[in-house]
Design brief:
The protein is of the alpha/beta class and about 375 residues long. Helices cover about 25% and strands about 30% of the residues. The protein has ten helices and 29 strands. The strands form seven sheets. It has a seven-stranded mixed β-sheet, sandwiched between helices. Strands 14-17-20-23-26-29 form a six-stranded parallel β-sheet, with no helix packed on it. Strands 15-18-21-24-27 form a five-stranded parallel β-sheet, with no helix packed on it. The protein is globular and about 65 Å long. The model has no long low-confidence stretch (mean pLDDT about 90). InterPro entries: ADP-Glc_PPase (IPR011831), GlgDAde_trans (IPR011832), GlmU/GlgC-like_hexapep (IPR056818), NTP_transferase_dom (IPR005835), Nucleotide-diphossugar_trans (IPR029044), Trimer_LpxA-like_sf (IPR011004).
Amino acid sequence: MRISKVCAIINLAGQEVKLKPLTDHRPIAALPFDGRYRIIDFMLSSVSQANLESVAIFIEESGRSIYDHIRSGRDWDLDGSLYGGVFTYSHQRRKLADYLIHQQNESFYENHMMFTDRAYADYVVIMEGDAVHNIDLVEVLNWHEQHEGEITVAYKKMPLQAAIDAETEAVYVIGDDKSLLDIELMSTVSEENVAVDCGVYVINRTTLFDIFETAEREGYLVDIGSLVRANLTKYPVRFYEYEGYLAKITSVQAYYDANMSMLRPEIFDSLHKGDNCIVTRSKSGAPTYYGENAVVKNAQIATGCIIEGHVENSIISRKTLIEPEAFVGNSVIGAGAKVKRGSRIEYAILDKGVVVESGVQIVGTADNPIVISKKAHIQLGDKL
């Protein structure tokens, strides 16, 4: 396949409300993951590995955190094409409100269609921004060309309970020829293993534009991912089975569990295996310093940290300070956090720039981790 025939759209329209306060000022795709990455890195890395030249990012609200992270797209080799690059479209929710109020003449999906036209694309890859995976888009695109479908959906088989934990609303019933037989609501499913949507689709340009035109005519104006899923029963669909790591970031609990799973070598390897490397924005920094009395057990610790206390079963992001006699266990610690002497953090998520003063105890549970908002300053006696 000539990759120039393909463009990508990354749809950042996840359920941010379920991840508050982590998503108070950023989309799910901008959340840090595994102490080093942002969730959007996994989509951009798949696009880069497939040598796609053009990618558009549609953002529900402000895109400041996304712009700051991606910049020119150089780290993903998305800045070198004369006709391609990274294109961002923010405030989609506001655009919809304005469109409904003023009944504007242009299409609500005008930017989607204009981007696709200018990319000269015959196929469009659509990726949801609320999942962690390492999907080989070249394999998916080849599958799409080889099978008789207008839409290809990437799916993963997983145990029913795992799908329930991921707050999956519906699963697919797939035929032997990889066609769609049915879409079942989770409340009616009894099988032990189910086919869960990965949030990755390949669709013919003509089919996508037909879907846009029908949606405009019928007044069904939603984000592009929801629109494609709503039309799966109306067009020939084929399913591509993805067998690697998949985490749907649909809640605070799902976000915590996905991060903590990276401490298990077999899970970490299933995400990073093969030649498809996960790329993030390059940041130079000093090595992490470990004090004479520091204790570290089963932890991932990024660069630029100062570790003088006890860290166990935790993910620690860049430039974090853990002072002597402080304990951090079973937690996810954001960049630039400061955990002062004698404090105790267990089963918690500390967002970027949090300061925990001496003697403070923040203790949640594995099923209910405590979340501390970005740049919060927690002192002894504060109500959490």
